[in-house]
Design a protein that fits this description.
The complex is a heterodimer.
Chain A (H helix, E strand, L loop, with lengths): L2 E9 L2 E10 L2 E6 L6 H9 L6 E6 L2 E5 L4 E2 L7 E4 L11 H11 L4 H14 L16 H13 L5 E5 L7 H12 L5 E5 L3 H7 L2 E6 L2 E6 L1 H6 L4 H7 L2 E14 L4 E16 L4 E4 L9 E13 L2 E6 L5 E6 H7 L6 E6 L5 E3 L1
Parallel strand pairs in A: 3-9, 3-10, 7-8, 8-9
Antiparallel strand pairs in A: 1-2, 1-4, 4-5, 5-6, 10-11, 12-13, 13-19, 14-18, 15-16, 15-18, 16-17
Chain B lengths: L11 H23 L6 H5 L2 H34 L5 H13 L2 H12 L6 H8 L7 H27 L2 H8 L4 H12 L1 H17 L2 H7 L9 H11 L1 H25 L4
Chain lengths: 347, 264
Protein backbone atom coordinates (compact mmCIF):
# COMPACT_ATOMS: atom_id res chain seq x y z
CA UNK A 1 0.00 0.00 0.00
CA UNK A 2 1.57 3.22 -1.18
CA UNK A 3 0.65 6.75 -2.06
CA UNK A 4 2.57 7.70 -5.19
CA UNK A 5 2.70 11.35 -6.19
CA UNK A 6 4.34 12.29 -9.45
CA UNK A 7 3.02 15.49 -10.92
CA UNK A 8 2.38 19.19 -10.83
CA UNK A 9 -0.27 21.26 -9.09
CA UNK A 10 -0.66 24.75 -10.58
CA UNK A 11 -1.59 27.59 -8.24
CA UNK A 12 -1.88 31.22 -9.19
CA UNK A 13 1.68 32.47 -9.59
CA UNK A 14 3.50 29.28 -8.66
CA UNK A 15 3.29 25.50 -8.86
CA UNK A 16 4.05 22.50 -6.70
CA UNK A 17 6.13 19.98 -8.61
CA UNK A 18 6.66 16.58 -7.09
CA UNK A 19 8.73 13.97 -8.86
CA UNK A 20 8.07 10.36 -7.96
CA UNK A 21 7.33 10.72 -4.27
CA UNK A 22 6.40 7.38 -2.70
CA UNK A 23 4.83 7.29 0.72
CA UNK A 24 4.56 3.88 2.33
CA UNK A 25 2.41 3.05 5.30
CA UNK A 26 2.93 4.88 8.56
CA UNK A 27 3.53 8.52 9.33
CA UNK A 28 5.13 10.75 6.71
CA UNK A 29 6.12 14.15 8.05
CA UNK A 30 6.02 16.97 5.50
CA UNK A 31 8.16 19.91 6.55
CA UNK A 32 9.21 23.16 4.94
CA UNK A 33 8.98 26.90 5.35
CA UNK A 34 5.64 28.69 4.94
CA UNK A 35 4.40 28.88 1.36
CA UNK A 36 6.49 26.00 0.04
CA UNK A 37 3.51 23.85 -0.93
CA UNK A 38 2.93 21.61 2.10
CA UNK A 39 -0.80 22.27 2.28
CA UNK A 40 -1.12 22.08 -1.51
CA UNK A 41 0.46 18.62 -1.43
CA UNK A 42 -2.12 17.52 1.13
CA UNK A 43 -5.01 19.09 -0.79
CA UNK A 44 -3.99 17.33 -4.00
CA UNK A 45 -3.88 13.95 -2.24
CA UNK A 46 -7.30 14.68 -0.71
CA UNK A 47 -8.75 15.60 -4.10
CA UNK A 48 -9.40 19.24 -3.26
CA UNK A 49 -6.86 20.44 -5.82
CA UNK A 50 -6.37 18.82 -9.23
CA UNK A 51 -3.09 17.90 -10.84
CA UNK A 52 -2.22 20.00 -13.90
CA UNK A 53 -0.27 17.03 -15.19
CA UNK A 54 1.26 13.84 -13.87
CA UNK A 55 -0.29 11.08 -11.83
CA UNK A 56 -1.43 10.38 -8.29
CA UNK A 57 -2.02 6.84 -7.07
CA UNK A 58 -3.51 5.88 -3.74
CA UNK A 59 -3.17 2.27 -2.65
CA UNK A 60 -2.66 1.00 -6.17
CA UNK A 61 -5.51 2.80 -7.89
CA UNK A 62 -5.23 5.98 -9.92
CA UNK A 63 -6.83 8.95 -8.15
CA UNK A 64 -5.75 11.71 -10.53
CA UNK A 65 -4.29 11.48 -14.03
CA UNK A 66 -5.29 14.37 -16.29
CA UNK A 67 -3.72 12.81 -19.40
CA UNK A 68 -5.91 9.73 -18.96
CA UNK A 69 -8.91 11.83 -17.99
CA UNK A 70 -9.12 10.25 -14.53
CA UNK A 71 -10.08 12.29 -11.48
CA UNK A 72 -11.60 10.59 -8.46
CA UNK A 73 -13.51 13.30 -6.54
CA UNK A 74 -12.62 13.98 -2.92
CA UNK A 75 -15.71 12.31 -1.46
CA UNK A 76 -14.85 9.00 -3.15
CA UNK A 77 -11.19 8.90 -2.09
CA UNK A 78 -11.20 7.74 1.52
CA UNK A 79 -8.72 10.49 2.29
CA UNK A 80 -9.66 12.53 5.36
CA UNK A 81 -8.12 15.81 6.33
CA UNK A 82 -7.65 17.75 9.54
CA UNK A 83 -7.54 21.32 8.28
CA UNK A 84 -5.27 23.92 9.79
CA UNK A 85 -8.34 26.09 10.46
CA UNK A 86 -10.28 22.97 11.58
CA UNK A 87 -13.50 23.78 9.64
CA UNK A 88 -15.89 22.20 12.11
CA UNK A 89 -19.58 22.39 11.20
CA UNK A 90 -20.94 25.21 13.35
CA UNK A 91 -24.56 24.14 13.00
CA UNK A 92 -23.93 20.61 14.28
CA UNK A 93 -23.28 19.39 17.81
CA UNK A 94 -19.80 18.09 18.54
CA UNK A 95 -21.01 14.48 18.51
CA UNK A 96 -22.73 14.99 15.13
CA UNK A 97 -19.63 16.63 13.68
CA UNK A 98 -17.78 13.39 14.41
CA UNK A 99 -20.73 11.26 13.24
CA UNK A 100 -20.92 13.19 9.93
CA UNK A 101 -18.63 10.91 7.92
CA UNK A 102 -20.22 7.78 9.35
CA UNK A 103 -23.69 9.04 8.40
CA UNK A 104 -22.52 9.72 4.82
CA UNK A 105 -21.20 6.15 4.70
CA UNK A 106 -24.69 4.92 5.51
CA UNK A 107 -24.70 4.42 9.28
CA UNK A 108 -27.94 5.17 11.12
CA UNK A 109 -28.01 8.08 13.55
CA UNK A 110 -27.81 6.05 16.76
CA UNK A 111 -25.01 3.80 15.50
CA UNK A 112 -23.02 6.72 14.13
CA UNK A 113 -23.33 8.60 17.44
CA UNK A 114 -22.19 5.55 19.38
CA UNK A 115 -19.07 5.22 17.25
CA UNK A 116 -18.49 8.95 17.41
CA UNK A 117 -18.63 8.78 21.21
CA UNK A 118 -15.98 6.06 21.24
CA UNK A 119 -13.70 8.24 19.11
CA UNK A 120 -14.26 11.31 21.25
CA UNK A 121 -13.26 9.26 24.28
CA UNK A 122 -10.08 8.22 22.48
CA UNK A 123 -9.10 11.81 21.72
CA UNK A 124 -9.83 12.69 25.34
CA UNK A 125 -12.80 15.03 24.98
CA UNK A 126 -14.94 15.23 28.10
CA UNK A 127 -18.44 13.88 27.41
CA UNK A 128 -20.00 17.06 28.81
CA UNK A 129 -18.83 18.77 25.62
CA UNK A 130 -20.38 16.24 23.22
CA UNK A 131 -23.85 17.83 22.93
CA UNK A 132 -22.45 21.35 22.58
CA UNK A 133 -21.71 23.34 19.43
CA UNK A 134 -18.06 23.74 18.39
CA UNK A 135 -18.19 27.48 19.07
CA UNK A 136 -18.64 26.77 22.80
CA UNK A 137 -15.37 24.79 22.99
CA UNK A 138 -11.80 25.89 23.60
CA UNK A 139 -9.25 25.81 20.79
CA UNK A 140 -7.67 22.63 22.11
CA UNK A 141 -11.02 20.89 22.44
CA UNK A 142 -12.00 21.88 18.91
CA UNK A 143 -8.76 20.39 17.62
CA UNK A 144 -9.58 17.08 19.27
CA UNK A 145 -13.02 17.14 17.65
CA UNK A 146 -11.44 17.80 14.24
CA UNK A 147 -9.10 14.82 14.63
CA UNK A 148 -11.91 12.53 15.80
CA UNK A 149 -14.11 13.67 12.92
CA UNK A 150 -11.41 12.90 10.35
CA UNK A 151 -10.69 9.46 11.85
CA UNK A 152 -14.37 8.46 12.05
CA UNK A 153 -14.91 7.24 8.47
CA UNK A 154 -11.76 5.08 8.78
CA UNK A 155 -9.85 6.75 5.96
CA UNK A 156 -7.06 5.07 4.02
CA UNK A 157 -5.03 8.26 4.24
CA UNK A 158 -5.24 10.86 7.01
CA UNK A 159 -3.80 14.28 6.23
CA UNK A 160 -3.12 16.42 9.26
CA UNK A 161 -2.22 20.04 8.61
CA UNK A 162 -0.41 21.57 11.61
CA UNK A 163 -2.30 19.34 14.01
CA UNK A 164 -1.08 20.15 17.45
CA UNK A 165 -0.51 23.87 17.24
CA UNK A 166 -3.41 24.98 19.42
CA UNK A 167 -3.56 22.05 21.82
CA UNK A 168 -2.15 22.58 25.31
CA UNK A 169 0.97 20.63 26.11
CA UNK A 170 -0.68 17.84 28.13
CA UNK A 171 -3.12 17.16 25.31
CA UNK A 172 -0.33 17.20 22.76
CA UNK A 173 1.27 14.01 24.09
CA UNK A 174 -2.08 12.24 24.05
CA UNK A 175 -2.92 13.31 20.51
CA UNK A 176 0.59 12.50 19.37
CA UNK A 177 0.24 8.94 20.56
CA UNK A 178 -3.17 8.79 18.90
CA UNK A 179 -1.68 9.81 15.55
CA UNK A 180 1.18 7.39 16.11
CA UNK A 181 -1.12 4.38 16.12
CA UNK A 182 -3.80 5.92 13.95
CA UNK A 183 -6.18 3.48 12.27
CA UNK A 184 -5.43 5.18 8.94
CA UNK A 185 -2.76 3.28 7.01
CA UNK A 186 -1.08 6.47 5.89
CA UNK A 187 -0.74 9.61 7.92
CA UNK A 188 0.61 12.66 6.12
CA UNK A 189 1.65 15.02 8.87
CA UNK A 190 2.29 18.61 7.87
CA UNK A 191 4.17 20.04 10.81
CA UNK A 192 6.33 22.78 12.25
CA UNK A 193 7.15 20.83 15.40
CA UNK A 194 10.51 19.00 15.60
CA UNK A 195 9.09 16.74 18.31
CA UNK A 196 6.47 15.44 15.84
CA UNK A 197 9.22 14.56 13.40
CA UNK A 198 11.43 12.96 16.05
CA UNK A 199 8.69 10.92 17.70
CA UNK A 200 6.19 10.06 14.95
CA UNK A 201 7.66 10.20 11.48
CA UNK A 202 8.75 7.05 9.73
CA UNK A 203 9.89 9.22 6.85
CA UNK A 204 10.30 12.91 6.20
CA UNK A 205 9.63 14.92 3.06
CA UNK A 206 11.22 18.37 2.84
CA UNK A 207 9.52 20.89 0.55
CA UNK A 208 11.31 24.00 -0.63
CA UNK A 209 9.93 26.50 -3.16
CA UNK A 210 7.33 24.11 -4.52
CA UNK A 211 9.64 21.11 -4.98
CA UNK A 212 10.88 18.17 -2.94
CA UNK A 213 14.25 19.18 -1.49
CA UNK A 214 14.85 16.14 0.69
CA UNK A 215 13.30 12.81 1.53
CA UNK A 216 14.07 9.71 3.57
CA UNK A 217 14.12 8.64 7.20
CA UNK A 218 14.49 11.34 9.84
CA UNK A 219 18.18 10.44 10.18
CA UNK A 220 18.78 10.51 6.42
CA UNK A 221 17.06 13.85 5.97
CA UNK A 222 18.89 15.31 8.95
CA UNK A 223 22.17 14.30 7.32
CA UNK A 224 21.17 15.91 4.03
CA UNK A 225 18.25 18.29 4.58
CA UNK A 226 18.33 19.83 1.10
CA UNK A 227 17.62 23.41 2.16
CA UNK A 228 18.65 25.92 4.80
CA UNK A 229 15.25 26.01 6.47
CA UNK A 230 15.13 22.25 6.95
CA UNK A 231 18.73 22.19 8.17
CA UNK A 232 17.84 24.56 10.99
CA UNK A 233 14.54 22.81 11.67
CA UNK A 234 16.09 19.35 11.79
CA UNK A 235 19.02 20.71 13.77
CA UNK A 236 16.77 20.85 16.78
CA UNK A 237 17.75 18.29 19.39
CA UNK A 238 14.87 16.29 20.84
CA UNK A 239 15.78 14.24 23.89
CA UNK A 240 13.28 12.21 25.92
CA UNK A 241 13.57 12.27 29.69
CA UNK A 242 11.82 12.64 33.02
CA UNK A 243 11.37 16.02 34.66
CA UNK A 244 11.51 16.78 38.39
CA UNK A 245 11.39 20.47 39.24
CA UNK A 246 13.89 22.41 37.16
CA UNK A 247 15.96 19.42 36.10
CA UNK A 248 15.42 16.63 33.61
CA UNK A 249 17.05 13.21 33.70
CA UNK A 250 17.50 12.04 30.12
CA UNK A 251 17.30 8.42 29.06
CA UNK A 252 21.08 8.21 28.94
CA UNK A 253 21.28 9.23 32.60
CA UNK A 254 22.42 12.80 32.00
CA UNK A 255 20.83 15.37 34.31
CA UNK A 256 20.07 18.68 32.54
CA UNK A 257 19.21 21.89 34.34
CA UNK A 258 16.30 23.67 32.66
CA UNK A 259 14.71 27.08 33.13
CA UNK A 260 11.09 25.94 33.59
CA UNK A 261 9.49 23.59 36.08
CA UNK A 262 7.86 20.35 34.95
CA UNK A 263 7.16 16.86 36.22
CA UNK A 264 6.90 13.41 34.64
CA UNK A 265 7.88 12.27 31.13
CA UNK A 266 8.88 15.14 28.82
CA UNK A 267 10.93 15.96 25.77
CA UNK A 268 13.67 18.53 26.06
CA UNK A 269 14.39 20.37 22.84
CA UNK A 270 17.18 22.79 22.04
CA UNK A 271 18.67 24.01 18.77
CA UNK A 272 21.93 22.53 17.55
CA UNK A 273 23.57 25.95 17.58
CA UNK A 274 22.90 26.25 21.33
CA UNK A 275 25.42 23.52 22.11
CA UNK A 276 29.03 24.66 22.48
CA UNK A 277 32.06 22.34 22.43
CA UNK A 278 35.25 22.57 24.49
CA UNK A 279 38.51 20.66 24.74
CA UNK A 280 38.59 21.14 28.56
CA UNK A 281 35.89 21.36 31.21
CA UNK A 282 34.14 24.70 30.59
CA UNK A 283 34.14 27.25 33.40
CA UNK A 284 31.49 29.70 32.11
CA UNK A 285 27.90 30.39 33.13
CA UNK A 286 26.34 27.47 31.27
CA UNK A 287 24.52 25.27 33.80
CA UNK A 288 24.95 22.10 31.80
CA UNK A 289 28.26 20.53 30.86
CA UNK A 290 28.97 16.94 30.06
CA UNK A 291 31.58 14.76 28.44
CA UNK A 292 30.58 13.11 25.19
CA UNK A 293 32.13 10.91 22.55
CA UNK A 294 32.23 12.48 19.10
CA UNK A 295 30.70 10.15 16.53
CA UNK A 296 30.66 12.16 13.28
CA UNK A 297 31.26 15.59 11.79
CA UNK A 298 29.31 16.79 8.73
CA UNK A 299 30.80 19.80 6.99
CA UNK A 300 28.34 21.91 5.00
CA UNK A 301 29.97 25.06 3.68
CA UNK A 302 31.09 27.19 6.60
CA UNK A 303 28.99 25.19 9.07
CA UNK A 304 30.02 21.99 10.82
CA UNK A 305 27.37 19.76 12.35
CA UNK A 306 28.91 17.65 15.09
CA UNK A 307 27.13 14.49 16.17
CA UNK A 308 27.79 13.46 19.76
CA UNK A 309 27.09 9.97 21.12
CA UNK A 310 26.54 8.96 24.79
CA UNK A 311 25.34 9.79 27.31
CA UNK A 312 22.74 11.36 24.95
CA UNK A 313 22.77 11.71 21.18
CA UNK A 314 23.06 15.43 20.49
CA UNK A 315 23.77 17.56 17.43
CA UNK A 316 25.90 20.66 17.76
CA UNK A 317 26.31 23.30 15.04
CA UNK A 318 29.62 25.18 15.12
CA UNK A 319 31.60 27.02 12.48
CA UNK A 320 34.02 25.09 10.32
CA UNK A 321 36.73 27.35 11.68
CA UNK A 322 36.06 26.24 15.28
CA UNK A 323 35.88 22.63 14.19
CA UNK A 324 39.32 22.93 12.66
CA UNK A 325 40.68 24.67 15.77
CA UNK A 326 39.30 21.98 18.07
CA UNK A 327 40.75 19.34 15.75
CA UNK A 328 37.55 17.28 15.87
CA UNK A 329 37.60 13.68 14.74
CA UNK A 330 35.40 10.64 15.47
CA UNK A 331 36.20 8.85 18.74
CA UNK A 332 37.39 11.98 20.47
CA UNK A 333 36.04 12.65 23.99
CA UNK A 334 34.99 16.27 24.28
CA UNK A 335 33.10 18.61 26.63
CA UNK A 336 29.69 19.94 25.58
CA UNK A 337 27.84 22.76 27.29
CA UNK A 338 24.32 24.11 27.06
CA UNK A 339 22.65 27.08 28.73
CA UNK A 340 19.54 26.13 30.67
CA UNK A 341 17.63 29.03 29.07
CA UNK A 342 18.11 27.51 25.59
CA UNK A 343 16.13 24.41 26.56
CA UNK A 344 12.42 24.09 25.87
CA UNK A 345 10.36 21.50 27.72
CA UNK A 346 7.68 19.70 25.71
CA UNK A 347 5.34 17.47 27.67
CA UNK B 1 -29.00 58.82 17.74
CA UNK B 2 -25.97 60.94 18.59
CA UNK B 3 -23.90 59.00 21.10
CA UNK B 4 -22.32 60.83 24.02
CA UNK B 5 -18.78 59.95 22.99
CA UNK B 6 -19.11 61.02 19.36
CA UNK B 7 -21.28 64.12 19.82
CA UNK B 8 -18.45 66.60 20.39
CA UNK B 9 -16.82 65.64 17.10
CA UNK B 10 -20.04 65.98 15.08
CA UNK B 11 -21.21 69.42 13.88
CA UNK B 12 -24.48 70.29 15.62
CA UNK B 13 -26.21 70.94 12.29
CA UNK B 14 -25.61 67.36 11.17
CA UNK B 15 -27.26 66.09 14.33
CA UNK B 16 -30.28 68.37 13.85
CA UNK B 17 -30.84 67.47 10.21
CA UNK B 18 -30.51 63.84 11.18
CA UNK B 19 -33.32 64.21 13.69
CA UNK B 20 -35.46 66.04 11.13
CA UNK B 21 -34.98 63.09 8.75
CA UNK B 22 -35.97 60.69 11.48
CA UNK B 23 -39.08 62.77 12.07
CA UNK B 24 -39.91 62.57 8.37
CA UNK B 25 -39.87 58.78 8.67
CA UNK B 26 -41.89 58.69 11.88
CA UNK B 27 -44.49 61.29 10.86
CA UNK B 28 -46.57 59.09 8.50
CA UNK B 29 -46.72 56.38 11.16
CA UNK B 30 -48.02 58.89 13.70
CA UNK B 31 -50.46 60.26 11.14
CA UNK B 32 -51.86 56.81 10.57
CA UNK B 33 -52.05 56.00 14.27
CA UNK B 34 -53.90 59.24 15.21
CA UNK B 35 -56.52 58.62 12.53
CA UNK B 36 -56.94 54.97 13.43
CA UNK B 37 -60.56 54.05 14.17
CA UNK B 38 -59.52 51.83 17.09
CA UNK B 39 -63.03 51.02 18.32
CA UNK B 40 -64.45 50.03 14.92
CA UNK B 41 -61.22 48.31 13.78
CA UNK B 42 -62.53 44.74 14.20
CA UNK B 43 -65.75 45.40 12.29
CA UNK B 44 -63.93 47.19 9.42
CA UNK B 45 -61.38 44.41 9.08
CA UNK B 46 -64.23 41.89 9.19
CA UNK B 47 -65.97 43.37 6.12
CA UNK B 48 -66.29 40.92 3.28
CA UNK B 49 -64.30 43.04 0.79
CA UNK B 50 -61.41 43.30 3.21
CA UNK B 51 -61.46 39.61 4.04
CA UNK B 52 -61.55 38.76 0.34
CA UNK B 53 -58.58 41.04 -0.37
CA UNK B 54 -56.77 39.49 2.59
CA UNK B 55 -57.37 36.02 1.18
CA UNK B 56 -56.05 37.05 -2.27
CA UNK B 57 -53.09 38.80 -0.65
CA UNK B 58 -52.10 35.74 1.38
CA UNK B 59 -52.41 33.40 -1.61
CA UNK B 60 -50.48 35.72 -3.92
CA UNK B 61 -47.73 36.66 -1.45
CA UNK B 62 -47.14 33.12 -0.21
CA UNK B 63 -47.11 31.66 -3.73
CA UNK B 64 -44.73 34.42 -4.85
CA UNK B 65 -42.48 33.72 -1.85
CA UNK B 66 -42.43 30.02 -2.71
CA UNK B 67 -41.47 30.90 -6.28
CA UNK B 68 -38.70 33.16 -4.97
CA UNK B 69 -37.23 30.30 -2.93
CA UNK B 70 -37.47 27.68 -5.68
CA UNK B 71 -36.00 29.97 -8.35
CA UNK B 72 -33.91 32.26 -6.20
CA UNK B 73 -31.88 29.63 -4.38
CA UNK B 74 -30.29 28.21 -7.56
CA UNK B 75 -29.75 31.76 -8.85
CA UNK B 76 -28.00 32.76 -5.62
CA UNK B 77 -25.71 29.71 -5.95
CA UNK B 78 -24.91 30.58 -9.57
CA UNK B 79 -24.05 34.16 -8.61
CA UNK B 80 -21.97 33.16 -5.58
CA UNK B 81 -20.18 30.06 -6.84
CA UNK B 82 -19.98 30.14 -10.64
CA UNK B 83 -17.49 32.22 -12.53
CA UNK B 84 -19.71 34.33 -14.79
CA UNK B 85 -18.68 35.96 -18.01
CA UNK B 86 -20.20 39.38 -17.25
CA UNK B 87 -20.71 39.33 -13.48
CA UNK B 88 -21.51 43.05 -13.13
CA UNK B 89 -24.16 43.02 -15.84
CA UNK B 90 -25.73 39.82 -14.49
CA UNK B 91 -25.82 41.23 -10.96
CA UNK B 92 -27.33 44.50 -12.21
CA UNK B 93 -30.08 42.58 -14.02
CA UNK B 94 -30.82 40.58 -10.87
CA UNK B 95 -31.12 43.73 -8.75
CA UNK B 96 -33.04 45.76 -11.33
CA UNK B 97 -36.54 45.05 -9.91
CA UNK B 98 -35.43 46.59 -6.60
CA UNK B 99 -34.99 50.04 -8.18
CA UNK B 100 -37.36 49.78 -11.16
CA UNK B 101 -40.65 51.70 -10.76
CA UNK B 102 -43.20 48.90 -10.18
CA UNK B 103 -45.48 50.26 -12.91
CA UNK B 104 -42.59 49.87 -15.36
CA UNK B 105 -42.11 46.30 -14.13
CA UNK B 106 -45.82 45.63 -14.75
CA UNK B 107 -45.68 47.15 -18.22
CA UNK B 108 -42.59 45.12 -19.08
CA UNK B 109 -44.27 41.95 -17.84
CA UNK B 110 -47.29 42.74 -19.97
CA UNK B 111 -45.17 42.94 -23.12
CA UNK B 112 -43.28 39.77 -22.20
CA UNK B 113 -46.03 37.55 -20.84
CA UNK B 114 -49.20 39.30 -22.08
CA UNK B 115 -51.43 37.64 -24.63
CA UNK B 116 -49.50 39.27 -27.46
CA UNK B 117 -46.19 39.39 -25.57
CA UNK B 118 -42.87 37.88 -26.47
CA UNK B 119 -43.46 34.63 -24.59
CA UNK B 120 -47.11 35.16 -23.70
CA UNK B 121 -48.35 34.57 -27.28
CA UNK B 122 -46.84 31.09 -27.25
CA UNK B 123 -48.20 30.37 -23.76
CA UNK B 124 -51.59 31.34 -25.13
CA UNK B 125 -51.53 29.46 -28.45
CA UNK B 126 -49.76 26.30 -27.21
CA UNK B 127 -51.12 25.82 -23.70
CA UNK B 128 -54.10 28.19 -23.65
CA UNK B 129 -52.49 29.90 -20.66
CA UNK B 130 -53.00 33.61 -20.25
CA UNK B 131 -51.37 35.25 -17.25
CA UNK B 132 -52.57 38.88 -17.32
CA UNK B 133 -55.54 39.69 -15.12
CA UNK B 134 -55.41 36.34 -13.28
CA UNK B 135 -54.29 35.38 -9.77
CA UNK B 136 -51.33 33.59 -11.38
CA UNK B 137 -50.44 36.90 -13.04
CA UNK B 138 -50.48 38.62 -9.63
CA UNK B 139 -48.13 35.93 -8.36
CA UNK B 140 -45.76 36.50 -11.29
CA UNK B 141 -45.77 40.26 -10.69
CA UNK B 142 -45.15 39.89 -6.95
CA UNK B 143 -42.42 37.28 -7.48
CA UNK B 144 -40.71 39.54 -10.04
CA UNK B 145 -40.33 42.42 -7.62
CA UNK B 146 -39.61 40.23 -4.55
CA UNK B 147 -37.02 37.88 -6.09
CA UNK B 148 -33.96 40.19 -5.74
CA UNK B 149 -34.55 40.60 -2.00
CA UNK B 150 -34.22 36.85 -1.51
CA UNK B 151 -31.35 36.36 -3.99
CA UNK B 152 -29.21 39.21 -2.70
CA UNK B 153 -29.57 38.12 0.94
CA UNK B 154 -28.76 34.47 0.24
CA UNK B 155 -25.92 35.24 -2.17
CA UNK B 156 -24.21 37.42 0.43
CA UNK B 157 -24.43 34.60 2.99
CA UNK B 158 -23.04 32.07 0.51
CA UNK B 159 -20.12 34.34 -0.26
CA UNK B 160 -19.43 34.89 3.40
CA UNK B 161 -19.59 31.16 4.15
CA UNK B 162 -17.17 30.37 1.30
CA UNK B 163 -16.54 26.75 0.38
CA UNK B 164 -14.29 25.76 3.29
CA UNK B 165 -16.99 23.69 4.97
CA UNK B 166 -17.99 22.15 1.63
CA UNK B 167 -14.40 20.95 1.21
CA UNK B 168 -14.38 19.50 4.71
CA UNK B 169 -17.64 17.66 3.94
CA UNK B 170 -16.15 16.25 0.72
CA UNK B 171 -13.15 14.79 2.58
CA UNK B 172 -15.65 13.09 4.90
CA UNK B 173 -17.37 11.33 2.01
CA UNK B 174 -20.23 13.74 1.27
CA UNK B 175 -21.15 14.13 -2.41
CA UNK B 176 -22.46 17.35 -3.91
CA UNK B 177 -26.12 16.86 -2.94
CA UNK B 178 -25.33 15.60 0.56
CA UNK B 179 -23.03 18.59 1.11
CA UNK B 180 -25.76 20.94 -0.06
CA UNK B 181 -28.41 19.40 2.18
CA UNK B 182 -26.36 18.74 5.31
CA UNK B 183 -23.76 21.51 5.30
CA UNK B 184 -24.31 24.44 2.94
CA UNK B 185 -28.03 25.09 3.48
CA UNK B 186 -27.96 24.60 7.28
CA UNK B 187 -24.97 26.96 7.47
CA UNK B 188 -26.83 29.78 5.71
CA UNK B 189 -30.16 29.07 7.42
CA UNK B 190 -30.35 32.54 9.05
CA UNK B 191 -29.96 34.18 5.64
CA UNK B 192 -32.55 31.83 4.12
CA UNK B 193 -35.04 32.89 6.79
CA UNK B 194 -34.18 36.57 6.41
CA UNK B 195 -34.39 36.43 2.61
CA UNK B 196 -37.72 34.61 2.78
CA UNK B 197 -39.17 37.16 5.22
CA UNK B 198 -37.98 40.12 3.14
CA UNK B 199 -39.31 38.61 -0.09
CA UNK B 200 -42.66 37.87 1.55
CA UNK B 201 -42.96 41.38 2.97
CA UNK B 202 -42.17 42.88 -0.44
CA UNK B 203 -44.65 40.57 -2.20
CA UNK B 204 -47.37 41.39 0.34
CA UNK B 205 -46.97 45.12 -0.27
CA UNK B 206 -46.75 44.92 -4.05
CA UNK B 207 -49.07 47.40 -5.81
CA UNK B 208 -47.86 48.93 -9.08
CA UNK B 209 -46.71 45.89 -11.00
CA UNK B 210 -49.77 43.91 -9.87
CA UNK B 211 -52.20 46.63 -10.92
CA UNK B 212 -50.55 47.04 -14.34
CA UNK B 213 -50.05 43.39 -15.17
CA UNK B 214 -52.85 41.64 -13.29
CA UNK B 215 -55.48 44.34 -12.95
CA UNK B 216 -57.89 44.86 -10.09
CA UNK B 217 -60.51 42.10 -9.98
CA UNK B 218 -62.11 41.38 -6.60
CA UNK B 219 -61.46 37.87 -5.42
CA UNK B 220 -58.79 37.26 -8.06
CA UNK B 221 -56.20 40.01 -8.20
CA UNK B 222 -57.42 42.64 -5.73
CA UNK B 223 -54.86 42.39 -2.93
CA UNK B 224 -54.80 44.41 0.31
CA UNK B 225 -52.74 47.30 -1.14
CA UNK B 226 -55.19 47.61 -4.06
CA UNK B 227 -58.12 47.44 -1.64
CA UNK B 228 -56.52 50.20 0.42
CA UNK B 229 -56.21 52.46 -2.60
CA UNK B 230 -59.84 51.92 -3.56
CA UNK B 231 -61.05 52.33 0.01
CA UNK B 232 -59.36 55.71 0.25
CA UNK B 233 -62.19 57.24 -1.83
CA UNK B 234 -65.08 55.07 -0.68
CA UNK B 235 -64.31 54.62 3.01
CA UNK B 236 -61.15 56.34 4.38
CA UNK B 237 -61.47 54.61 7.74
CA UNK B 238 -61.13 51.23 6.04
CA UNK B 239 -58.04 52.46 4.20
CA UNK B 240 -56.48 53.49 7.49
CA UNK B 241 -57.37 50.16 9.10
CA UNK B 242 -55.85 48.05 6.30
CA UNK B 243 -52.78 50.29 6.19
CA UNK B 244 -52.30 49.72 9.90
CA UNK B 245 -52.37 45.95 9.39
CA UNK B 246 -49.87 46.10 6.52
CA UNK B 247 -47.58 48.39 8.49
CA UNK B 248 -47.73 46.18 11.56
CA UNK B 249 -46.72 43.17 9.43
CA UNK B 250 -43.82 45.05 7.85
CA UNK B 251 -42.59 46.29 11.24
CA UNK B 252 -42.91 42.81 12.73
CA UNK B 253 -40.77 41.37 9.92
CA UNK B 254 -38.06 44.00 10.41
CA UNK B 255 -37.98 43.74 14.19
CA UNK B 256 -37.74 39.96 14.02
CA UNK B 257 -34.94 40.19 11.47
CA UNK B 258 -33.02 42.67 13.58
CA UNK B 259 -33.33 40.62 16.70
CA UNK B 260 -32.36 37.31 15.25
CA UNK B 261 -30.57 37.51 11.94
CA UNK B 262 -29.01 40.83 11.32
CA UNK B 263 -25.70 41.89 12.84
CA UNK B 264 -26.18 44.82 15.19
Amino acid sequence: MTVTFDGRVARSGWALEVDGLEMDEGVTAVIGANGTGKTTLGRAVAGLDRLADGRLEIAGSVADDPAAGVFVPAHQRRVAMVFQDLRLFGHLRVIDNVAFGLRRAGADRAGARRQAGTLLERVGLDSAAWPRRPAALSGGQRQRVAIARALAPEPEVLIVDEPLASVDSSGRAQLRSLLGDSPARHVILITHDPVDVATLARRVVVLDAGAVAGRGSAAEVTASPGCEWAATFLGANVVPGRAHGTSVTTEGGLVLAVAEEAAGPVYVTFPAHAVTLHRDRPAGSARNAWQAVLSRVDIDGERARVHLGGPVAVKADITKHSADELDLRPGLTIWASLKATEVTIVT
Amino acid sequence: MAGAIMSNRLPAAVTWVGFVALGLLVLPIVGLLQRAPWSSLPSILGESEVLEALRVSLIVSLAATAACIVLGLPLAFVLARRRLRFPRIVRAVVMLPMVLPPVVAGTALLFALGRRGLVGQWLDSWFGVSLPFTTAGSVVAAAFVALPFFVVTVEAALRQAGDDLDEAAATLGAGAWATLAHVTLPTIRPALAAGTALAWARALGEFGATLTFAGNFPGRTRTLPLETYLALERNPEAAVAISLVLMAVALAVLVTLRDRWMPR
